[in-house]
Amino acid sequence: MSQQGALTVAVAQYAPAVGDRRGNLELGSAWVRRAAEAGAQLVVLPELATSGYTFSSEPEAAAAAEALDGDGAIAAWQALCHELQLYVVAGVNERVTDRERFNSAVLLGPDGRVGLYRKAHLFFEESFYFQPGDLPFPVFDLPFGRVGMLVCYDLWFPEAARALALQGADLIAVPTNWVANFRRRPVDDHGWTMGNYAAVGVATQNQVFVAAADRIGEERGVEFVGCSCVVAPDGSMLAGPAARDRETLLVVRVDLEEARRAKARTPHNHTLGDRRPDLYAAAAARAAVADALAPSAPPAVAAR
Amino acid sequence: MSQQGALTVAVAQYAPAVGDRRGNLELGSAWVRRAAEAGAQLVVLPELATSGYTFSSEPEAAAAAEALDGDGAIAAWQALCHELQLYVVAGVNERVTDRERFNSAVLLGPDGRVGLYRKAHLFFEESFYFQPGDLPFPVFDLPFGRVGMLVCYDLWFPEAARALALQGADLIAVPTNWVANFRRRPVDDHGWTMGNYAAVGVATQNQVFVAAADRIGEERGVEFVGCSCVVAPDGSMLAGPAARDRETLLVVRVDLEEARRAKARTPHNHTLGDRRPDLYAAAAARAAVADALAPSAPPAVAAR
Predict the structure, then answer these.
(1) Looking at per-residue confidence, does A266 or B211 come out higher?
(2) Which of the following is catalytic: A66, A94, A152, A227?
(3) Prediction ipTM score
(4) How far is residue B271's CA from residue B264's CA, in Å, rounded to a whole number?
(5) Which of A36, A190, A203, A281 has a CA positioned 20 to 30 A from the CA of residue A84?
(6) Cβ(A19)–Cβ(A93) under 8 Å?
(7) Is the pLDDT of residue A25 over 90?
(8) Is B183 exposed, middle or buried (0-12, 13-18, 19+ CB in 10 A)?
(9) 3-state secondary structure A221-281
(10) How many A/B residue pairs have CB atoms within 8 Å?
(11) What is the mean pLDDT of residues B74-85?
């Protein structure tokens, strides 16, 4: 395992509490410390780890938000990254103005804030409280490799993970709040939830590591399914899926160089070089024409 | 289950023999008859079902090829579709000229040939014998719904399945020859091969059915892994994975309308309408600029 790519990654699965900024700060800090004790150099916390998920009103969502330069959880976790000399990816309710918030993921490191991503694809009632993300899938250079971030529902949009891979991402950190609702069978006989299959799909399509930290518990009728996981570039489940209903810290040693080696799967293939942008563009043009020619038919692609 | 979307789909898993055009014709016909007896309206046969996979020379690949309008397997299976009043998707070694062939999938029906797809992403030594496909992911209207085709390695390119979904595909038929080689663990503890995860990934990202017919057996040191499967739009495994090493016919009743309903996952979401083409385009532009600015560094995207 080369020094450059070697990394101990941890994902923390627990239950943030809706609206409890102070409690969520302390909870997240405790999990980061626990991960540090286990040797983690990168710790992933769940989506909206600062605020909880299920807001009941705009004032509640606003009161639970954190400005990036505020003195709440982001500042506290940043200080912790300095103290413990590690990196943290955390889902945050990001305050921009009184009325403008994003469902974001921050990447914090020993020397301050390294990166920011804002969830591009909003699920269910998130659009009541958050703006759709405006950052085109940034990738960040860290000492051990290149890291991108996605949040939950983003995993179902293969374009998002592909955008990260094409910019050289070796690992995608995924703060998530996978819900049990809206699905017939939240967790199957293997103990996998649909998010695990989505994570494996994204990993194997892009030959990247995926580290997904889900939450557990229930908030106002919305149940979360745990099943946090770390997946290898060949689609292997390296850690997890964690239990559906128990706090869990997954810790696993990886070599991020594997994400690069896996792309040269045979002497004749490079999985990103084998792409056919010419055909993808032709197909996209054809889909657009079909939509334009059939405006009154049920559209293949619904309007937002 | 509405009449419109109701469909009994079958995938046939067996071992074609390299170079044996006559034998492969008869083998495929027998599997189509067996599927018809089981009530199938759509039967999927493996990749290169007419020719076998592992050619050792250009003349051998040429001799094993079928012209679309020839009197070999394609004509025979077309006649069978008429006789049995069903549809067949079959992988064929398609002859265009003496020197030009495609690794294709044909869609045959009761009234003749309905569709053609040519594998866009060639794996391992296929590029010695086949041209890269030149058809931008066509989708075909059948009485029970809209069907697209992909072949094997195409499943690892999320752009391909996405192109089919954006053109309204309800089901993706996948003739495949998944290989055991090039992977540390061809089949995992669940009895799944990497292709199963790829199929589930594609199904759940696009809310489409995926019906993948793999082959079994060994040809000149290349081992195939079976594990044929039918996956639902929510990622559930409806049939299979089949055994790694046994002939199998999977037959399953589906409602293709589910592929459309699944896209409206919540009252606030349509999974194709939720796409963010603005961000995807911005990310693609940034990846291209990064490549252009660092011509001497290891490219994020290798040249073909």
Answers:
(1) B211
(2) A152
(3) 0.93
(4) 7
(5) A203
(6) no
(7) yes
(8) middle
(9) CEEECCCCEEECCCCCEEECCCCCCCCEEEEEEEECHHHHHCCCCCCCCCCCCCCCHHHHH
(10) 202
(11) 98
Give the HSE-up count for residue A262: Cα atoms under 13 Å, Cβ half-sphere.
25
Distance CA B215, CA B220 (A): 15
| Tens digits of residue pLDDT in A221-267 | 999 999 999 999 988 899 999 999 999 999 999 999 999 999 998 89
What length is written for chain A?
A: 304
Residue B206's nearest CA partner among B116, B115, B275 is: B275
Closest CA to B159 of B121, B105, B210: B121
Burial class (CB in 10 A: 0-12, 13-18, 19+), B120: buried
Distance from CA of B276 to the nearest CA of A (A): 7
pLDDT of residue A3: 60
C-alpha–C-alpha distance, residues A268 and B129, integer Å: 13
Q: Give the domains, in start order, of chain B with CATH numbers.
A: 6-267 (3.60.110.10)
Beta strand A87-95 pairing with A66-67: parallel
Instruction: Please provide residue B231's backbone torsions phi and psi, each rounded to the nearest 5 degrees.
Output: -120, 145
Q: Which residues of B touch A201 (CB under 8 A)?
A: 158, 197-198, 200-202, 204-205
- The secondary element (H helix, E strand) that includes residue B222 is strand B222-223
